Amino acid sequence: MATTTVAKVEPVDMKLEVVVLVVSDVDRAKAFYEKLGWRLDADFANGDDFRVIQLTPHNSDASIIFGKGITSAKSGPADSLVLAVADIEVARADLIARGVDVSEVFHYAAGPFNNAAKNARVAGRDPQGRSYSSFASFKDPDGNVWLFQEIQERLPGREWKATRAPATDVATLAELLRETGEHHNNYEKTHTDHRWWDWYAPYLSARQNGSSPEEAAAVADRYMDEVLHVPRR
C-alpha cells in the first residue's frame, strides 16, 4: 500500500506587536513609561473620548498601547508582563536610577512562573545561574506588573531563523541607480546644493519596499524638505 507524503506547511508569520494596558491617568502613565527610556511612537486623540499612546521598550519588537476609549471599563491591571534582559542587575540598576521602585532579584522555588507552590518566590538569583530563572518586578502607577526575566542564552529552538532578502543582481542595481539619478535631477533643479546621497537613500529604500518611482521620489523629496530642511533655489 502506497504511503502519502504530506508536505509540511509553514505557519503564517505572526509577530507579537502590541500589548494593551489599562490606565486611569493617561498623562501619568505616559510620563512613567517615558521615564523608563521607552520610545514614544504615537500620541493622538480624536475628540474628548478617544486618545491612544504607543511606546516601545528599547530594542523591543513589541510595544504597549494605552489611552482613553481603548479598553473596557471592567478590564483590570495586567499581571506579570515579561521583559527579557541580558543582565538583571544592570536592568534593575537602570530603572532604580530612573526613580522606579524595583524589587530585589528573586527566583521561583518550583521553576519559572510557578506561583502554585507555597512561598513560590525565593530571594536571590537562581542558585544555578540558569537563563530564564532569575527575576525582578516593578509596577506602573496603575498596578500593571512587569517582570524582568534574565535570559543570557536562549534554549535551542527558541529563536527564529533570520530571513535575508535576496541580493539584487548587478544589472538590476545599475538600472535602479540610473532611475534614481533621473528622478534626482528634477529635485536638483529646484533645490540648493545638497548631498546627493541623502536623496538617493530614501528613494532607493522606498523602491526596494515596493513604492513606484513617483512615490519613491515623493518620499525622498519629503525627507529632504521636512527632515534635512534643504531650501529651494
Poorly predicted ranges (pLDDT <50, ≥5 residues)? none
Work out the helix count: 5
**Distance between the ends:** 80 Å
| Spatial shape | extended
Write down the CATH topology of the largest domain.
Answer: 2,3-Dihydroxybiphenyl 1,2-Dioxygenase, domain 1
CATH class bucket of the largest domain: Alpha Beta
Number of domains: 3
The rounded Rg comes to 25 Å
The biggest beta sheet, please? 4 strands, mixed
Superfamily (CATH H level) name of the largest domain: 2,3-Dihydroxybiphenyl 1,2-Dioxygenase, domain 1
CATH 2nd-level architecture of the largest domain? Roll
Mean pLDDT: 88
How many beta-strand segments?
9
Strand content: 15-25%
Residue share in helices? 25-40%
Report on this model:
The structure is a single chain. By secondary structure, this protein is an alpha/beta fold. It has three domains: 15-70, Roll (2,3-Dihydroxybiphenyl 1,2-Dioxygenase, domain 1); 78-153, 2,3-Dihydroxybiphenyl 1,2-Dioxygenase, domain 1; 170-227. Helices cover 30% and strands 19% of the residues. The chain has helices spanning 26-35, 88-97, 170-190, 196-208, 213-227; strands at 18-20, 39-45, 51-56, 63-68, 81-85, 106-108, 121-123, 135-139, 145-150. The strands form three sheets. It has a four-stranded mixed sheet with strand order 1-4-3-2, covered by helices on one side. A three-stranded mixed sheet has the order 5-9-8, covered by helices on one side. A hairpin with a 5-residue loop joins strand 2 and strand 3. Helix 3 crosses helix 4, helix 3 packs across helix 5 (213-227) and helix 4 (196-208) packs across helix 5. The longest helix is centred in the last third of the chain and has 21 residues, at 170-190. The mean pLDDT is 88.
